[in-house]
Amino acid sequence: MTRDDLADTLEEIALLLELKGENPFKIRAYRSGAETVRQFSGDIVALARENELKGIKGIGDALQQKLHELASTGKLAFHENLRAEFPESLFDLFKIPGLGPKKIKALYDSLEVDSIARLKEVAASGEMAALPGFGAKTAEKVLEAIAFRESNADRFRLGDVAAPVAEILDFLKSHPDCLRAEAAGSYRRAKETVHDVDFLVASSRPGAIIDHFTSSDRVQKVIAKGDTKASVYLENGLQCDLRVVSNEEFACALAYFTGSKEHNVVMRGRALERGYTLNEYRLGLKEGGDRDEPPVFESEAQLYEFLDLEFIAPELRENTGEVEAAESGDLPRLIEVENLRGTFHNHTIASDGKNTLEEMAQAAIELGLQYLGIADHSKSSFQANGLDATRLREQIGEIRKLNRRFAEEGTKFRIFAGNEVDILKDGSLDFDDEMLGELDYVVASVHNAMTLSEKDMTDRIIKAVSHPAVTMLGHLTGRLLLRREPYAVNVPAVIDACADTGTIIELNANPWRLDMDWRWWKLATEKGVKCAINPDAHATAHLDFLWFGVKLARKGWLTREDVINTLDLSEMETFLKLDPVS
Question: How many C-beta atoms lie closer than 10 Å to residue 501's C-beta?
Fold first, then answer.
């Protein structure tokens, strides 16, 4: 059991009690308990396991016993009994944006809505609109959300598939008959969402590799199994396809199955112009051609070189000018994870994070970073326990104290005191200029009023980035991949405004966001706009999201020079106009 397991269980109990119409004070007690668990600075799991929670404010006797049972046994009978009172399909309703516990309770009690299918039925029939507190507009938005969910039902976020892909690759490589193995397709090209994942293995014994692949513990169901190909479903529903080729075919096969289709069409055209044919296995002589027999390629780089091109990184293979750049020698040297020296936009338990300030700093140090920006939410994000000016000033003091300790210990590391300041509906910021002036940097983000017209939203954001205290713009479009569409905003106009004001645009590396979208970064860099790759970390483990940020930055053609947090600590202090800590 982890801290998150304890808190999540208490929050779900509160949700279930709300559905049952229980006493609001009882519900609040569970929610407060969950918040206490998340923010407690000590080892709350160990204390719960040993039944030593007495005296912790916010955790009464009843919660103490439940947390003890949960931490020591891994389950809680009270929670399981509550869940059993409702159909499992009911919990899918909480994945529909705009439906909170009160609305779900009303639908459940009045119209027996206990599944997405039933929800769609009552929204379309007009029954939902007739309920008090709903109306036609709510029903319309629910139908839109369901349609969005259905259209993306067979897609997966890059962050959701990275771990199983790594495990399967390691599993394939562990077989003695595997000579080489790679993941290909849209996953290798770092698309933000994928439909399935293609694996490619070089082996002289394909049957043994196929049997090994389909026997993985990750495999839920075998869809098809042949001599050199197999398709399976993993336990999360992701389809994985394996193709086994000879070692001599591997380079051409990897290039082909990486794609994209549009990139492959251009590559085949280049081969034909030179008297050759290129398919998924090899480069061969064109029928009737008089060219020399092509070599066997040991790597993709050799294939590209044979076609008079610089090697094109997989992330760029979308036919957006990469072949022309490779032909003329103008491909950028793309950013690498190792280039990052620090990052901004990270949260602590002061708002809605799950780790303390010091825990976040220590995790960043262990990653080899030289600085970490803390940007907890501002006061208008009450749902995220946003900080008011008093709490923010207390946090700034704590940061200064920690920085002095790092300096005394000779640790080359600094925490920058920032805040993720809400951009209010009229484009003003959530703190006054005096408070903003006390911060080392400011991330400005939209968190509410997301249904404005494109013009109003664009004007709102441009007004915010024009404020002299704003350092960078957070998650520009507000999208949540496969969950929520981006709000209407004129992205080129915002990019122009950031170019005029010198405002950095964030590449939010959280796999749910990956925002600003990779398709806009070429335009941004042409305008001189800098990028900050930020994990939007709400826990120490989320700092690893930087890997996704770099993958998407590469897809957007970004170099080390385009990304502000490749600056080292002293350079960043100069950029932020800060004196070194002494």
Answer: 16
